[in-house]
């Protein structure tokens, strides 16, 4: 449906994209689109909740709006996943890398609200994912990947398109999210930078 919207939450590893999606689910009943990946599950990640975990063969069976390689694994968001979420609510979320966010902006136009999440000091990201329980070798691989370095800064195609949200302090982030969601739901638009 034309009035359906998808909040695309993007940015580097550990900035808090999944935490933001969870907040929007719990407080605004926005379902998150579950995407597909060939990477292995982390401790506590459940199949069908965190991701649809695939192998190289099963990954090819889905119909993707976009797909990317990220730090050596494949990721993709399927049309079926989007429709399943929109059946539950006209406002939904998806967590993507910046390449995926650019594709969504191009393919879905006005139906997309992009939130680019950053932190002031990128060193804090390593602490955050370590506290989350990520294996130290995986953290090392991830933060030295070209995709991680790319996603730290706002890509040019998203400049003036994405809302920039600095997630240093979670209590302030929640206030900014509430303002943004209420404005979008009421057809207003906040400045893109805060
Ligand atoms: N403002 C914040 N201050 C401190 N810790 C935070 C903040 N926001 C999120 N976190 C924590 O940082 C960790 C990483 O957050 P989250 O998993 O949401 O990141 P992400 O961007 O989805 O990462 P990835 O792309 O690697 O999946 C989690 O342990 C989360 O609880
Ligand atoms: N473009 C896409 N990016 C995706 C998709 N699913 C997840 N992601 C992003 O990949 C990285 C790595 O995720 P992680 O869970 O292994 O840390 C992160 O930026 C996710 O937002 C997708 O379907 N398409």
Note down, in words, how this protein is organized.
With about 190 residues, the chain is an alpha/beta fold. It folds into 2 domains: about 1-30 and about 90-194, P-loop containing nucleotide triphosphate hydrolases (Rossmann fold, 3-Layer(aba) Sandwich); about 35-85, 2-Layer Sandwich (Guanylate Kinase phosphate binding domain). It is built from 8 helices and 8 strands, in the order βαββαββαβαβαααβα. It has helices at about 15-30, 55-60, 80-90, 100-110, 125-130, 135-145, 145-150, 170-185, and strands at about 5-10, 35, 50-55, 65-70, 75-80, 90-95, 110-120, 165. A 4-stranded parallel beta sheet has the order 6-1-7-8, sandwiched between helices. It is globular. The protein starts with a strand and ends in a 9-residue tail after the last helix. About 30% of the residues are buried. The model has no long low-confidence stretch (mean pLDDT about 95). Adenosine-5'-triphosphate binds near residues 14, 129, 132, 167 and 169.
Which of globular, elongated, flat, extended, rod-shaped describes the shape? globular
Q: Cα distance, first to last residue?
A: 31 Å
Number of helices: 8
- Report the count of strand segments: 8
Profile the largest sheet: 4 strands, parallel
- Structural class comes to alpha/beta
